[in-house]
Amino acid sequence: MSLLVGLATPAAAAPTSPAAQSPAAGAGQTICTPDSQKINEISGLVATATGYVAINDSASGNSKSRIFTLDAACKIVGTPISYPSTPLDPEDLAVDKSGTLWIADIGDNTEAAGGSASARPTIALWNLPQGAKAPVIHRLAYPDGKKRDAEALLLSGDGTPIIITKDPVGEIWVPEGPLQPNATKGVKLKQVGTFAPQETKTPNPLAFLGWKAITGAASSPDGTRVVIRTYSDAYEFDVQGGEVVKAITSGKPRITPLPNEARGEAITYSTDGKQYITASDVPSDVKAPILKYTPQNVTPGKGTGAVVPTPKPDDRSFLQDLTLQDITYMVAAVGVLGLILVVAGIVGIRRSRAGRRAAAASGPVRGSAPRPADDDLPGLGEEGGTGNVYGARPATSASRGSAPGGTVYGAGGGGGQQSDGFGPPQSYDQPRGFQQGGYPPQSGPPQGGVYGGGGGQGGYDQRGAYGGGHPGDHDGYERGYAPHR
């Protein structure tokens, strides 16, 4: 019996298992569960009249890279078909109008996820006509040579292959010319559009990362609809005249939640086109069911369809089901978030500094000392000026009565008396001499009464506050020394 029997002729309904469960609203209904470790990493799936055709994702040593036939109970039928050479990363399946099966060897994982550090020089599409013993390779190449990971394949009405990337998200590529079988040089690809999955909030093992990661696609048996899936949802578009790219890039999708699948990658239509059938790519010690869904049209984040969980294949925790690739995506997301926070911090610091510089240039800020007017305080070096730093000398004469006293430690005495600041010691009961360079004032108005107090001018009543001794400087406010109240 041919591997692809029933692919070209739709049956009345998708195959079901006698043990199928009743579906819950928004959840997938279990059809059957593959019990062989040979076919646990299902990345591509096609429904037939008698069962399914499935491919495994890449595995260590590519020992599982074969094409399998399953019956309606998910049991392997016959001998799996091998590739004539080793495929690198087969990710999806599609069937054209003639019944020929197309295998999309288009994955290119990062080094951390088990792939290569460099980009693949070519990707490949393998085709397997009905009755053929082995598939034939057709190589393709991205024009810029950059690394891209893709997991979704569609066929347009005229049979043109359409590849949709997972990373970067949603780039749509088609060949520039006819495919060349067994050629070593790849036919150049060209980008013809993009597809942007929505933040649907549908629960899935990868949380917000799963909303955007495109993992599979399929065309309905009659070619009038296509569906693109992520880890969390299915997006269906109506297709007119076989123009699949136009439908995706300009049409409005109907969204069906695929909540909490173990690690949903594959999707196909039932042979009657009425349901979606999905499968997961899981570790060898996990059994994940093949599920079916009735298409819906939900608003992202609303309705029960997006939040009702699918029955899980086992009781494993979220962390136990994580693969290296899953962890890689999460780490990358955290790194991007950290970078955004660092950039935001740098911008904030620079703006703060610029604001302070602008304020300084425009005038004094709150708490700073304004420059006194000339008739209030003589400038440094002017006649009648006071010593303003440690060891400053007093003025030799006063322009308006006695010279003011020194305003800091070591400033000159008041009343016109010169002093070097190192006079004979006095007792503590001597009036006001401690602040005037070591000598009591000989004459003139009262001097400031605390550390730094200066002499008065013209009979002004001086304050005994820190920074006091300057006319009109009430409790030091004008110099910025006022106590907090």
Notable traits:
globular; 11% helix; alpha+beta; 485 residues; 4-stranded antiparallel beta sheet; 8-stranded mixed beta sheet; disordered C terminus; 4 helices
Describe the structure.
It contains 4 helices and 20 strands. It has 485 residues and is α+β, with helices and mostly antiparallel strands. The chain has an 8-stranded mixed β-sheet, covered by helices on one side. Strands 1-20-19-18 form a 4-stranded antiparallel β-sheet, with no helix packed on it. Strands 2-3-4-5 form a 4-stranded antiparallel β-sheet, with no helix packed on it. A hairpin with a 6-residue loop joins strand 18 and strand 19. The chain starts with 28 loop residues before the first strand and ends in a 123-residue tail after the last helix.
What's the SSE blueprint?
Blueprint: E1 29-32, E2 42-47, E3 51-56, E4 66-71, E5 81-82, E6 92-95, E7 101-105, E8 123-128, E9 136-141, E10 149-155, E11 161-167, E12 171-175, E13 187-194, H1 208-212, E14 214-219, E15 225-230, E16 233-238, H2 244-250, E17 254-257, E18 264-269, E19 276-280, E20 290-293, H3 318-321, H4 324-362
Parallel strand pairs: 9-13
Antiparallel strand pairs: 1-20, 2-3, 3-4, 4-5, 6-7, 7-8, 8-9, 10-11, 11-12, 12-13, 14-15, 15-16, 16-17, 18-19, 19-20
